[in-house]
Amino acid sequence: MKTKHYNVFVIGSGIAGQTVAKACVKQKLTVAIADNREFGGTCANRGCDPKKIVIQFSALLEQSQRLEKIGVSKLPKISWKKVQQFKTQFVEDIPVETEESFKKLNIDLYHQSPEFINENEILVEGKTITADYFVIATGRTPRVLPIKGSKHLETSDAILNLKKIPKTASFIGSGYVGMEFATMLAILGCKVTIFEQGDKALSNFDQFLVEKLNKNIKIKYALNGEKMRHKSRKVFNTAGRIPSVKDLKLDNANIKLDETGIVVNDFLQSTTNKKVYACGDVSSLSLPLTPLSGLQGYIVGENIINNNKKEFQFPVVPSTVFTQPNLSSIGLQEDEAKKRYKNILVFKGEATDWFNAKKSNQNTYAYKIIVNKRTQEIVGAHILSERANENINLFSMAISNKMTVSEFKRLIFTYPSYSNDLKAMLADED
Ligand SMILES: Cc1cc2nc3c(=O)[nH]c(=O)nc-3n(C[C@H](O)[C@H](O)[C@H](O)COP(=O)(O)OP(=O)(O)OC[C@H]3O[C@@H](n4cnc5c(N)ncnc54)[C@H](O)[C@@H]3O)c2cc1C
C-alpha cells in the first residue's frame, strides 16, 4: 500500500484544529485534516452558537414574564418550530463552508477517524499516512453513564434539535450545559427535574451565587440508597464530557492519556510522543471553553512552525452559565484566594434593591468580588445578573491588567448601566 506524507496531520476540525491547520498551511507546510463528523466542530455546529440562538427566546419570555402587568399585557408566544428554522439557518452551512475554506488553502480533507498504527503512522480512509507532526484536536464527547437503560438517554445534540418542547424532561447532571438547557425548557413550559449525585449544582461556581440562582430553579436530588421512580418524556445525559479519543488507538503510538485528556507539556506536546501535539478540549491543560481552545490551537501552530518557542500559560478565562439570570465567573474563587494570599477582601451581596434590578422586576441579582488585601488588586469576580455574561469581560480586563479597587472605581461607565453597578459592588466589604 502506498504511504502518503504530510508535514502536519490534524485530527479534529473544531476551533483548535482549524487554527493549527490554517497557521501551518500559511507557512507553506503540507497539511491534512480529518473529522469523523460534520466539519466545523462542537461550538459552531452543536454547542455555544446554536445554544445561544435558542436560549435567547426563553430569555425573552422570562423577561416578559417579569414585566407582565407592569407594561407587558400579553406574553409573547414562542413558536419552537420557527426557532428551530432560524437556528438551522446558522448551522446548516457551517460544515460546507468550513470544508470550502480548507480546500481553498489546499488542505486535504479526510472524513473518518484515523487510527494510529505506530508512533509515526496513521491509517485513515484505507490509506497509510506519515507526518512530521500529528495534532490531536478531537474535543470532548458526552460521558456514557454506566447505568441500566443508558441507551435511552439523549444528549445536548438532541436538545438543540428538539421538534417540540416536551411536557416533562429529566436531566442527569447539573453542570453548566444541564443547567442552561434545564432553565430554557422550564421557561418554555416543560416540567423539568434535575438529578445530581453530588450535593450541589454547578460545583465549579461560587456557591453563594449558585444558591441564589437555585431559588428560581428547584433541583430534585435522588436520595441515596432509596429507590425512587420518576417518569418523564425525555431524559438527557448532561453528566459531563470526556476526551474524545476512543477510536484513535493512542496506545499504538505511545500517547499518554489520563482522565484530564492527552497529557501534554507546556508546549502542548504529548509527554510521551514528541511528534504529537494536543490542543483544545482534548488536551490535559484545557478548560472546555471555546476561547481557550482557539488559544491552544494558535500555540500549537506556533510551536510546530518555530520549533517549540511558545509555552502555554493559563490566561484569566471568564466563563458564563447561560441560565436566567446568567452566572459568570473569572479569576479565583474565594477558597482559592484564601489559599494563595495571606489576607483577602470579599465584597459580596445582593443587588435586588438596586435600580437595575428594580426597573426590570428582577428578584435575583448578586455578586462576589475577591481582592488581595495587601496589593488591593482584584483577583476574582463572580456575578449573577441579567448582564453578567457581558459585564464579566470588564473584570477580565481589570484582572489581566492587575487593576486595584480604586483604579477600577475611578473608571467612568455609562449611567444607568449594569457596568456602572460593578463599581458599586466594590463599595462595602463583607
Ligand atoms: C452544548 C454545549 C454548549 C457549549 N457552550 C459553550 C459556551 O457557551 N461557551 C464556550 O466557551 N464553550 C461552550 N462549549 C464548549 C465548546 O464547544 C468547546 O470548548 C469547543 O468547541 C472546543 O473546541 P475544540 O476545537 O477543542 O473541540 P471541538 O469543537 O469539539 O472539535 C473537535 C472535533 O473533532 C472531531 N472528532 C472527535 N473525535 C474524532 C475522531 N476520533 N476522529 C476525527 N475527528 C474526531 C469532532 O467531530 C469535532 O468536530 C459548549 C459545549 C457544548 C457541548
How would you describe this protein?
- The radius of gyration is 23 Å and the shape is globular.
- With 430 residues, the protein is an alpha/beta fold.
- It folds into three domains: 3-46 and 88-142 and 242-306, FAD/NAD(P)-binding domain (3-Layer(bba) Sandwich), CATH 3.50.50; 150-239, 3-Layer(bba) Sandwich (FAD/NAD(P)-binding domain), CATH 3.50.50.60; 325-424, FAD/NAD-linked reductase, C-terminal dimerisation domain (Enolase-like, domain 1, 2-Layer Sandwich), CATH 3.30.390.30.
- The protein has helices at 15-26, 41-46, 48-67, 80-91, 94-104, 156-160, 176-187, 207-216, 290-306, 334-340, 355-359, 388-400, 405-410, 418-425, and strands at 3-11, 31-34, 108-110, 115-116, 121-124, 127-136, 140-142, 168-172, 191-195, 234-237, 241-243, 257-258, 261-262, 276-278, 319-321, 326-331, 344-350, 366-372, 378-385.
- The mean pLDDT is 95.
- A hairpin with a 5-residue loop joins strand 18 (366-372) and strand 19.
- Helices cover 33% and strands 21% of the residues.
- It contains 14 helices and 19 strands.
- The longest helix is centred in the first third of the chain and has 20 residues, at 48-67.
- Helix 1 (15-26) runs parallel beside helix 9 (290-306) and helix 3 packs across helix 7 (176-187).
- The structure holds flavin-adenine dinucleotide (FAD).
- Flavin-adenine dinucleotide binds at residues 11-17, 34-37, 41-43, 47-48, 51, 113, 137-139, 156, 177, 244, 247-248, 280-281, 288-291, 293.
